[in-house]
Amino acid sequence: MEQTTILSFCLFLLYISTCPQVLHSAITSGHRHRHHEKRSVKLFVFGDSYADTGNSGKFATGSWVAPYGITFPGKPAGRFSDGRVLTDYIVPYKWRNRVKKSKLGDGMNFAYGGTGVFETLVSAPNMTTQIDFLQQLVEEKLYTKSDLDLSIALVSVAGNDYAAYFLKGNHSQDLPAVSTSIVNQLVVNIKRINDLGVKKILVTAIEPMGCLPAVTSIVSSYQNCSETMNAGNSTTRENPLMPCCVGVSSEYSCGSVNERSGANKYTVCSNPGRSFFWDQEHPSQNGWRAVYSAIKSSLLPLSININNM
């Protein structure tokens, strides 16, 4: 896969955006605190499998089985990738939702794979509940107003809301109303995070679902994105959409094994470091690194401690 192709797709896949008012607050607040304090920036993450670093239960998802984690940390650790995900590049994550109080200094990751703004097909805390978790920590005074002033929230969610909509057999003609509902609730959630005291909020754009291998494998043998799923945004490429880890047939997926013999029912490409996608829905560590490289400069004004991994 050519590097230019990867970077081009990264820019399309994920773009970090911040409301102008929040951006202004983030920059002025950052300058103020930089002169008077040397306290670490805390990152609070809300979202789905694109941000989850291990919250999803070992028996609830496939991210805790081989070959997930084969690149980093060398074994399954709950990330939906062969290695690091976006959050690992923004701040080196050594923590998840369940940590000791003494480990709260870097913030908290509340993201759960498969979840959305609303309830999806996965029984796990949606974004509203994830914000409840932060509110509880604030009410328990585990984070002070000063802590929150120096904090950043990363919101990576919504793709599963659309996936659940289509998997329930709904039709695309009703999609505008569904999108409006999702966006409206997302705005309510972001305002709630802001009201809790977090002034810097990063919101990822929805991934182009028509470019996910789960879709392109059906419509074009990984060659082209689906115009329908991308609402008119189509991209033609040599073949950067082929995932590294796939099931040996349509009834299997990455990580599947024969229930009787235990034999692997998936294949892994020879070099995950050259793939953008890891499985049918998720980028590889290489893919996330490319995304991070594309947005890295936009994080600097927000005083984020850049991770140079």
Keywords:
globular; 309 residues; five-stranded mixed β-sheet; two-stranded antiparallel ribbon; 7 strands; disordered N terminus; disordered C terminus; single chain; alpha/beta
Can you describe what's shown?
It is a single chain. The chain is α/β, with parallel strands linked by helices. 33% of the residues lie in helices and 9% in strands. It has nine helices and seven strands, in the order H-E-H-E-H-E-H-H-E-H-H-E-H-E-E-H. The strands form two sheets. The chain has a five-stranded mixed beta sheet with strand order 1-5-4-2-3, with helices on both faces. A two-stranded antiparallel sheet has the order 6-7. It is globular and about 55 Å long.
Any chance you could write out the topology, listing elements then pairs?
Layout: H1 3-13, E1 16-17, H2 20-36, E2 42-47, H3 86-90, E3 107-109, H4 127-139, H5 145-149, E4 151-156, H6 159-167, H7 175-195, E5 200-204, H8 213-219, E6 245-247, E7 266-268, H9 285-299
Helix pairs in contact: 1-9
